[in-house]
Design brief:
2 domains; alpha/beta; Rossmann fold
């Protein structure tokens, strides 16, 4: 869907003006600088065409392996650029706070610790144990609060004021610019993709992809993918306005968002051709397909893009298709359940009032 405002100038000349948010319109120079920063820490991730996927789907399918970063997910890119730019603006910053289901928190912990900053990360109660362990290993102090990501995020202003730290939001122009480095790697190496399927959490991955495609002058179509159990972005995309949902009960915790970001939504509505929903069964099936055909373990969000392509494959027969495997951080018990043919049930926690924890409180 491309939203264009037609403006009639005084002399009768008609011109088209994009409705995309100016804050996300980073330049090619800014993108290349962000990519260089990311590559000073990690190498580019690979993109592979897997023959077994082609045989299974009847489609040439290219997988961008963002599960091959130091934290096992694409988010590391945004954290590195955000922290670097933060310290260039305000060298007196001592620490940061962020909310996460796991991969954003790992990114913030990795980048903050590397820069000598303290990091306090808020996670929902019942969050993935292995993602929690990874965040602590990267140097973060974890705080448990809320039934889901959105409730955890609501605690950030209080914590930032208490400790005098900076908030690292889950969606921010600097995060988008950093994350877009995966798209720059991919689309400069492979300019022949007809479509790319990409999962939507809060929107940094798809927005970075949209802007990078446009900067490179490509015609690649972009399809966002969400879970049917966390479909706020799909509903909002269709309605043309933010429509929150009351729940986001998906085991694909990286895309378990109840309330879309309005800036991200505007970018997606302008630059994506569709946003599709996939079921929990389809996500689990896609994890198994990726494991069987590529021997890569994907988390739920990481498999969502492939699930979207599988559901839409008749539309894209004969085309060259890309899918973003955005992360591989799946806890062992859920991995065993999925690979054994099951579908995990999202973890639930007890009421927030019983479990608000903050270091020493």
């Amino acid at each position: 869907m491309r939203l264009i405002v037609w403006v009639i100038l005084r002399r009768g000349i008609v011109t088209a003006v994009s409705t995309r948010p100016r804050s996300l319109m980073f330049s090619l120079a800014e993108l290349t600088a962000a990519t260089e920063l990311v590559h000073s820490v990690m190498p580019p991730t690979p993109q592979y065409t897997w023959p077994l996927l082609r045989r299974r789907l009847g489609i040439e399918t290219v997988v961008k392996h963002e599960n091959h970063t130091p934290i096992g997910a694409f988010k590391i890119r945004g954290g590195l650029v955000f922290i670097d730019r933060l310290l260039r603006r305000r060298r007196e910053v001592r620490g940061v706070v962020a909310a996460t289901r796991g991969n954003h928190g790992q990114s913030v912990a990795f980048a903050a610790t590397r820069a000598g900053l303290e990091a306090k990360i808020v996670v929902p109660l019942g969050n993935a144990r292995e993602k929690n362990a990874a965040m602590r290993a990267w140097g973060a102090e974890l705080i448990e609060a809320g039934e889901d990501f959105d409730q955890a995020r609501a605690r950030l202003p209080e914590l930032a004021e208490r400790y005098g730290y900076e908030i690292v939001p889950s969606f921010h122009p600097d995060l988008v610019t950093g994350v877009a480095s995966y798209a720059y790697e991919w689309l400069t190496a492979d300019r022949r993709l007809d479509v790319i399927f990409v999962p939507i959490g809060l929107g940094s991955g798809i927005c970075g992809l949209i802007r990078t495609r446009d900067l490179l002058g490509l015609d690649t179509q972009i399809v966002g993918v969400v879970s049917q159990q966390a479909n706020a972005y799909a509903r909002s995309y269709a309605a043309g306005k933010v429509i929150p949902t009351l729940s986001a009960d998906t085991f694909a915790d990286g895309i378990a968002t109840r309330e879309p970001d309005s800036t991200a939504l505007a970018m997606i509505r302008d630059g994506a051709c569709d946003v599709v929903e996939v079921s929990e069964v389809e996500i689990a099936d896609a994890i198994r397909v990726l494991h069987e055909d590529t021997h890569n373990l994907a988390e739920g969000a990481g498999a969502a893009a492939l699930a979207g392509l599988i559901g839409q494959r008749q539309r894209w027969l004969g085309k060259r298709c890309g899918v973003v495997l955005c992360g591989g951080n799946l806890d062992r018990d859920w991995a065993a359940e999925v690979l054994g043919g099951g579908v995990p049930v999202p973890r639930r926690s007890r009421p927030i009032e019983q479990h608000w924890q903050a270091d020493g409180d």
